[in-house]
Amino acid sequence: MSYHERLEKLKAEWKDKKVMPLLKRFPERKKEFKTSFDGPVETLYTPAEKDEYVEKIGFPGEYPFTRGVQPTMYRGRLWTMRQYAGFGTAEESNRRYRYLLSQGQTGLSVAFDLPTQIGYDSDDPMSEGEVGRVGVAIDSLEDMETLFEGIPLERVSTSMTINSTAAILLAMYIAVGEKQGVDALKLTGTIQNDILKEYIARGTYIFPPDSSMRLITDIFEYCSKNLPDFNTISISGYHIREAGANSVQEIAFTLADGIAYVQAAIDAGLDPNVFGKRLSFFFNSHNGFLEEIAKFRAARRLWAKIMKERFGVTDEKAMMLRFHTQTGGSTLTAQQPMNNIVRVAFQALAAVLGGTQSLHTNSFDEALGLPTEDSVTIALRTQQIIASETGVADTVDPLGGAYFIEELTNTMEEKALDYIEKIDDLGGMVEAVRAGFVQKEILDSAYKYQVAIENKDQIIVGLNEFAADEEQGRDLLRLDPAIEDRQKKKIETLRKKRDNEEVRRLLEDLKKAAQGSENLMPFILKAVKAYATLGEIANALRDVFGEYTEAVIL
Amino acid sequence: MNSMKPGIDQLKISRSLSIIENDTDSARKIIGGLPARDYCVIGVTGSPGAGKSSLTDRLACISVEERTTAVVAIDPSSPFTGGAFLGDRIRMRRATDDPRVFVRSMASRGNVGGLSPSIYNSVEFLGRSGYDRIFVETVGAGQSETDIVNLADIVLLVMAPGLGDDVQTMKAGIMEIGDIFVINKSDLPGADQLASRTRAILELSGKKFPVMRADSIRGSGVQEIQEEIEEVLLSYRSSGRLASKRAKRNLYNNLNSAYQIIKEHYAENDKLEELIRYLLENIGR
Amino acid sequence: MKIKVLVAKPGLDGHDRGAKVVAMALRDAGMEVIYTGLRQSPESVVKAALQEDVDVVGLSILSGAHMKICTKVLQLMKEAGIGDKPLFVGGIIPAEDADELRRAGIFEVFGPGTSLKSIIDKIEETVKK
Q: Is residue A409 very low, low, confident or very high in pLDDT (cuts 50, 70, 90)?
């Protein structure tokens, strides 16, 4: 009898003699235990038949990167503690950034308001009530200069959560650098620049998919020459998960988006061995602690295989899935908000055990509004405690080899691949999005989850169980309602100060270029430096590209 | 609201339509109180995904002096819960913004022919209330959603490449119901083939129906379709075909109303329902 | 009689998971849901409510812009002659704003953690009156 056969026999005996009698007297808490993607969770996991460490798991820093993208991971350098922030005016945001940098944060992450994300100036009728709410309002290069006042761009890495208008904001960042005397070649950071997930989960799209993909490849091309250390896309699964997808869908749809971008870049003449190194990803860290750890490992392995086998990439560095993680915002409850500190701690720990390159932890009061300085400090401390006090950062992939974790990693990789093949059959991600396939899958998961909560199949502490009558806290951060008026006045003044004829001419040049196939970045950069507003530039592109309307999916 | 056309009270129309949707007796009374008018009903049908809504959106807004347009978009009710998700307004941003256009969504409420139970009365009410052109967008045409042919003066059959339209549509004889055929999403590959296949099939059946191309997202071809609609209406009018279609519509309207009234008042009487359904299905064959 | 509900996302907020899940639940509860999609102006919301003659108007707002948007919608509804239609709002709305909104005429505010069942019940109860 082989070792494994003996093991299985002993396991069967254990089940018979120990487990079954126990179950007769004390049944398990549920009839079935399931993962978020409806996979079974067994009572016990034991070693797999074949030890496939070499073939399937491998070493950190080597293909297929299951255990991590660097050989020594956090022993060499901890993950970047990067808290997303930005609200109201550029001045206030600038103050918050300087505070966070002084408190030990190592990179900046900028949140923009909805009008900025969707290409509307603060004085556009569509912007009413929205200016400065979910992030900072940037109407022109002037605001960008204020945002980074006193922050040395050659020493700080900046991540900008911007998609449809990424080209414009990137151009502004370059221009600010220039004014500081920093060569674009030295700039580091990331722009999210992931339009596909906007259509399926986040909603800040402007143009139809084809034109959007063109803008994205223009950015890839421009940066490969001029900003070699800048990450030009953060292929995002965070929002897809927030929209209701389960963990497998999160991997599948994110990687499918990645495939579409890589293909588009290749079609635009770029070398995947080169720009593959500048791709980064952005994932969610949700409640299922063990599942999330397996998810990150499965994603790394699957992406490496895709880059190698599907796209023929040969440079290992271009096969690495490097990612930022944010703890799941939708898991925060407004009820008993202090519980959220605990939730975030577990989610953050899962991300670290999953090998994330950078991490944002949510603040406990975010179910109702923007975080206060106090609550955001606790969120940062959560990361610092994990890093310094728990010891988990002292060895690489500590949960590797845990039987359940490896099994889950394998299963999730398989199931994600199934989805990707299905999307291939539909003609690729852009087609799948047009057809509404992805959106429908996500909505079905979201609905199922909500029903599970209402049936108490899924318990949320403080919400459907262990609830208490409570007064909702009234110490929320309030935005200055005068922000909108101040921005409007700023724009008015700007329009009087600048050379309007030059602006008009540069916008015309941009439109002409947009009708052709030239790279649009230089045109946008010129317009930005002449203090054309964000809305003016976006509208010029709207005139040429048109606007997207959402797919009807129910 | 000052964005509405003076002369047509959208609030009143909207409220009356609700009565008409729920109470056939009252519907007949309301309609009877309004003078008859000349108005045209344009049916828009085709597979889901062909772009019916965005095409209707464009057509409804093309400005022709003083003409007022209504759009009724029908979506299926859930056979299990009786509820419905009516999402056509999403695709009709222009029409819903245009002050001259009235857009109303309706659920099929158990009807299987692609229409809703009150559609005949609703359309007649809208026509008599002052709407010159009424677009009725049906549930996507599979094999059985063909009732539109009894309701509309002319039917636009919208097809698009890549939906398997060529095989499905033509097999099912759905070609019979179209007066104008539109190949939408004409920028996609396969549009040419679909257009020529459609023309071939129409030729075989000896009918000379127009086959047009459009891109409802970018707006190309839409003006031409609008003009074709008016031309076809004109020719049907002079040939007498319009009059006979409207007589048929009237007949269907009366039968349908009778059926609905019976349903509303004598819901338990299966035999009576069966009889009426049989009559409805077989009249005019 | 079928209950007709308008579910709209006014303003620029693109997070429609809540609106869509609620729309599905209402449909599964037998209601007819008119779903207008994203990026609705207050004007287009009111126009839809008027043309569709809905029993209840539902807004979903998670961007924090609720005060301005809701007061605008209420005002436009009154001007259009449909000020009597109940207006519900769901989303990220702090307690004191919810109080103020209710005083201004919003029928009910559904904050984070609200169950689908309570929304359905509230709508049915409101329409019956």
A: very high
Length of chain B: 285
Percent of chain B with pLDDT over 70: 87
> What is the reported pLDDT for A435?
84
Instruction: Give every CB contact of residue A132 below 8 A, 6+ residues apart in sequence.
Output: A87, A88, A89, A113, A122, A479, A480, A483, A484, A487
Domain that holds residue B183: 10-239
| Closest residue on chain B to C28 (Cα) | B81
The angle subtended at Cα A20 by Cα A17 and Cα A22, nearest 5°, is: 95
DSSP count for chain A of H helices, then E strands: 21, 10
| Whether C34 and B90 lie within 8 Å, measured CB to CB | no
| pLDDT, tens digit, 9 for 90 and up, residues A263-272 | 999 998 899 9
Instruction: Tell the CATH topology of C4-128.
Output: Rossmann fold (3.40.50)
Instruction: Name the token pair of A394.
Output: 């002292």
Distance CA B88, CA C52 (A): 12
Q: What pLDDT is stored for residue A547 in this prediction?
A: 87
**DSSP 8-state assignment for residue A16:** I
Residue B256 in any domain: the answer is no
Lowest mean pLDDT among A214-218, B120-124, B136-140, C102-106: B136-140
A472: contact with C, CB 8 A cutoff:
yes
What's the whole-model pTM score?
Answer: 0.89
If you average pLDDT over residues B170-183, what whole number do you get?
Answer: 78
Q: Which of B88, B91, B218 sits opposite A546 (nearest CB)?
A: B218
Distance CA B144, CA B147 (A): 8
What percent of chain A shows pLDDT beyond 90? 78
Structural domain count, chain B: 1
Please name the residue ranges forming H helices in A276-324: 289-305
Domains along the sequence of chain A with CATH: 53-454 (3.20.20.240)
Neighbours of B278 (CB within 10 A): 10
Q: What percent of chain C is predicted at pLDDT more than 70?
A: 100
Is the pLDDT score of B197 beyond 90? no
Inter-CA distances, A55 with A315, A481, A506, Å: 19, 59, 56
Predicted confidence at residue C94, as pLDDT, reads 84
Tell me how far apart the alpha carbons of residues A493 and A487 are, in angstroms, rounded to a whole number: 10
When pLDDT is cut at 50, 70 and 90, the band that residue A157 belongs to is confident
Contact with chain B for residue C5, Cβ under 8 A? no
- For A178-187, the CB contacts below 8 A with 24+ separation are A179/A145, A180/A148, A180/A152, A180/A153, A180/A154, A182/A152, A182/A153, A182/A154, A184/A226, A184/A227, A185/A226, A185/A227, A185/A228, A185/A229, A186/A153, A186/A154, A186/A229, A187/A153, A187/A154, A187/A227, A187/A229, A187/A230
Place of tokens 């108007």: C57
What are the sequence ranges of the domains in chain C?
Answer: 4-128
Cβ of residue C118 closer than 8 Å to a chain A Cβ: no
pLDDT above 90: residue B20 = yes
**A554:C13 CB<8 A:** no
The answer, for C77 touching chain B at a CB cutoff of 8 Å, is no
Touching C: B residues 50-89, CB under 8 Å: 77-78, 81-87, 89
When pLDDT is cut at 50, 70 and 90, the band that residue B4 belongs to is very low
Is the minimum CB–CB distance between B3 and chain C shorter than 8 Å?
yes
Q: What are phi and psi of C40, to 5 degrees?
A: -90, 135
CATH number of the domain at B86, please: 3.40.50.300
Which of C5, C7, C12 is the best residue to mutate to test the A interface, defined by the most A CB atoms within 10 Å of its own CB?
A: C12
C21 interfaces chain B, CB cutoff of 8 Å: no
In tens, the pLDDT along A193-212 reads 999 999 999 999 999 988 99
Evaluate whether A546 touches A205 at the Cβ level (below 8 Å): no
Contact A550 C37 (CB under 8 A): yes
